[in-house]
Amino acid sequence: MKARTIRRHMKESLRNLARNGWMTFASISAVTVTLLLVGVFFVIMMNLNKVATDIEEDVSIRVHIDIAATKEDQDALKGQIEKLPEVESVVFSAKEEELDNLISSLGEEGEAFKLFEQDNPLYDVYVVKTKKPEQLETAAKKIEEFDFTSKVRYGQDDVEKLFSFIKTSRNVGLVLIIGLLFTAMFLISNTIKITIVARRKEIEIMRLVGATNSFIRWPFFLEGLMLGVLGSIIPITIISLIYSYSYDYISSKLQGHFIHLLEFNPFMFQVGGLLVLIGAFIGIWGSVMSVRKFLKI
Q1: Whether the model pTM is above 0.70
Q2: Cβ count near 207 (within 10 Å)
Q3: Which of 58, 120, 195, 251 is most buried, by the most CB atoms less than 10 A from its CB?
Q4: The domain 60-153 is classified under which CATH number: 2.60.40.10, 3.30.70.3040, 3.60.40.10, 1.10.10.10?
Q5: pLDDT computed for residue 1 by the predictor
Q6: Which residues pair with 130 in a beta bridge?
């Protein structure tokens, strides 16, 4: 297609959008409201997924080493653990470090445990990370059988409930996002169809004077694209402002914790780009399908 023809279609599309002001406003409003819902829900689900991932990555196996084990025995036990196919890393934590962590985690109540610094009753520990969170139980059962393993702790009941909740949340979130996208496509495309139906006579006149199908479709194609892009601007702006404030507020509350929200940059730019693409796709799809099928051009 020649550049002159493209410019002509662009001018015609802009002229039609201005000429059909109320229908243009209705279409952009439909895109705006729907993409706002999609964007908000997407931001929430992606951050919930990030929190779930952080929790999964923080889960580990704590292997209490037998008090009677010598340095050679501890090294042998570490070698056995590292050879397990499920294991990603093994980190040694001396009983002195374990006591310090216990005291600091309890705050003022932990001061009483300083009495045990001279006669520490805790165990040396190996902190074991698995390659996949779901492999915790399998690895823990194998480690329990090794010599010089006193106890193995990984919060069995809590971990199983956590993984079940995370899996369910992700599946539900995915279904809801897909459902919301299909709802958005239905609402927006139907609004655009109404716009095109209102211009049926205009299309019929173009056909009578010999305009080809592609010549008629192009202005509607570009109008759908513009409606989708224009309708995505407000949702992107609102979501960005709300997320910027929420990120600063929640991050200040989560300082010192292993859980973090997705950083504003690049996350919001990715969300913005996604909403523009969704808006443009739905606008184009609604226009093309309406012209091709509804008006049977």
Answers
A1: no
A2: 14
A3: 195
A4: 3.30.70.3040
A5: 58
A6: 87
